[in-house]
């Protein structure tokens, strides 16, 4: 083991980033068949809740018997004066650069560092990776559509006034996608405007320095967008970074619970494809007025439902709390829907739920992991984007992939959803008669087959992973030039 090369992964905290990057690393490891090991540099997450979440994953993998070594980096002070999450993550990791350098340099004597793979927010680490003359890669846990947009940001800036996408009247050209109405631009770029824009633009520019960008997608899912990036349509005149579409990268591990989760036991008693599942990611929560509309919409739809309802984060934190159902839900709601609905107030085992035969539809906040998980299990969706790049993902899901029924949102009222709109979308998706619902269900089933084929032996993502491993193993190392 001592003389084998190692691939260093530097993942970002937060389940959507950390688990995905770790899983991608494990797939590299498995494809390498013992030719190299994996070293994960663990950055102390900025909040205790996130740190313990990361620790849970580290502890589980540390006893997996795989060739993975976890190195915890020393804690650093938090950067001051930044409220924007993209800016915070980018500046926070900048402060870790000397520790990252020391950790990578420290590996040198025992194992050659074949490549360093950093999270999409961590391109500031390229400076030290270049200094050490090690090839740098980005792991992009979001869709290729968002990658295309990030690469386009310098050019789009010219079309924007100070008010950002919100004030834009024309559609936005994201190569490979149909023209995107400005209201579908990611919330992280629209709301926070300039600060976020600057940082996403910064990372988009730096992707061009990478030896390659490893994307959690597949040719079958986003082929036209991957082709548009490769053809240089995002950054005309410059060579696009090499793309490695190795997805869907989904973690199928389970918790240590011996008993089936209560949500799963409840699903066991429901008929096949009868339940609509609602879940809003690791950071999604709704305000009290919106909760009342969801309750009314579900009640009126007449369909069975499993609703993961979380409480608002406490001040100064970003993670939702366990919900107080008695306080949040309208009086009489639980009684009126008893037997056909379950409201779960805490974290739920989403992948297990999506894999359950009783689930026939998914109202999702459109985090990319959630979309991929739903597609993997062939569950059609109703997109309800909240934060991050999710609005663009929702657009792609309806206008591109096609495995979803659109939910009408009042964009002028902060994307508020009225009960009647949710009721309508649920009836279309879950009811047997509508052509729109039939099409979404059929496309979801076909996409599931395509995703499984892509990562299976001989599939496009499996082949991309094999090419990437070959590239990493023969790449020049210390002393040679990097791009
Ligand atoms: N997740 C879960 N239970 C929950 C909420 C989320 O298991 O109650 C998982 C979900 O399966 C997915 C991840 O958390 O793997 C969320 O990632 P995604 O990219 O969808 O959204 P994010 O939370 O990063 O916004």
UniProtKB/TrEMBL annotation:
It comes from Hordeum vulgare subsp. vulgare (Domesticated barley). The gene is LOC123429853. It is found in: Endoplasmic reticulum; Nucleus. This is Glycosyltransferase. CDD domains: GT1_Gtf-like (cd03784). InterPro entries: UDP-glycosyltransf_plant, UDP_glucos_trans, UDP_glycos_trans_CS. The keyword Membrane does not apply. The lineage of its organism: Eukaryota, Viridiplantae, Streptophyta, Embryophyta, Tracheophyta. UDP-glycosyltransferase which uses UDP-galactose and malvidin as substrates to catalyze the biosynthesis of malvidin 3-O-galactoside, an anthocyanin conferring purple pigmentation. Its main location: endoplasmic reticulum. The keyword Electron transport does not apply. Its EC number is 2.4.1.-. Pathway: Pigment biosynthesis; anthocyanin biosynthesis. GO terms for cellular component: endoplasmic reticulum; nucleus.
């Amino acid at each position: 083991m001592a003389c084998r090369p190692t691939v260093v992964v530097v993942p970002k905290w937060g389940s959507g980033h950390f688990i995905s990057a770790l899983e991608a690393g494990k797939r590299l490891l498995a494809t390498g068949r013992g030719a190299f090991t994996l070293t994960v540099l663990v950055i102390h997450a900025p909040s205790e809740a996130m740190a313990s979440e990361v620790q849970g994953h580290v502890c589980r993998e540390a006893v997996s018997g795989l060739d993975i070594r976890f190195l915890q980096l020393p804690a650093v002070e938090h950067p001051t004066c930044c409220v924007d999450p993209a800016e915070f993550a980018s500046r926070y990791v900048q402060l870790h650069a000397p520790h990252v350098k020391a950790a990578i340099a420290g590996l040198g004597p025992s194992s050659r560092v074949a490549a360093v793979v950093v999270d999409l927010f961590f391109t500031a680490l390229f400076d030290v990776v270049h200094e050490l003359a090690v090839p740098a890669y980005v792991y992009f846990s979001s869709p290729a559509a968002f990658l295309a947009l990030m690469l386009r940001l310098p050019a789009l800036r010219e079309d924007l006034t100070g008010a950002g996408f919100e004030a834009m009247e024309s559609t936005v050209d994201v190569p490979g996608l149909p023209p995107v109405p400005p209201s579908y631009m990611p919330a992280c770029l629209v709301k926070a405007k300039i600060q976020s824009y600057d940082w996403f633009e910064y990372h988009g520019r730096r992707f061009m320095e990478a030896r390659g960008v490893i994307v959690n997608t597949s040719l079958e899912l986003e082929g036209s967008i991957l082709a548009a990036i490769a053809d240089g349509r995002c950054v005309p005149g410059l060579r696009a970074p090499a793309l490695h579409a190795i997805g869907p990268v989904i973690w199928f591990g389970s918790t240590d619970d011996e008993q089936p989760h209560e949500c799963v036991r409840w699903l066991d008693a429901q008929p096949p494809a009868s339940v609509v599942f609602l879940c809003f990611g690791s950071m999604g929560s709704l305000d009290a007025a919106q909760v009342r509309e969801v309750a009314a919409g579900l009640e009126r739809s007449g369909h069975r439902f499993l609703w993961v309802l979380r409480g608002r984060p406490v001040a100064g934190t970003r993670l939702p709390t366990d919900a107080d159902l008695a306080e949040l839900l309208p009086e009489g709601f639980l009684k009126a829907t008893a037997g056909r609905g379950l409201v779960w107030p805490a974290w739920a085992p989403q992948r297990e739920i999506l894999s359950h035969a009783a689930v026939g539809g998914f109202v999702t906040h459109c985090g990319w992991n959630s979309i991929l998980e739903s597609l993997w299990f062939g569950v059609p969706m109703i997109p309800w984007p909240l934060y991050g790049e999710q609005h663009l993902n929702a657009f792609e899901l309806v206008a591109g992939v096609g495995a979803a029924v659109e939910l009408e949102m009042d964009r002028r009222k902060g994307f508020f959803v009225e009960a009647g709109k949710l009721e309508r979308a649920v009836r279309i998706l879950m009811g047997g008669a509508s052509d729109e619902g039939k099409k979404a269900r059929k496309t979801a089933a076909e996409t599931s087959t395509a995703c499984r084929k892509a990562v299976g032996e001989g599939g496009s993502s499996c082949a991309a992973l094999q090419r990437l491993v070959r590239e990493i193993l023969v790449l020049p190392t210390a002393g040679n030039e990097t791009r």
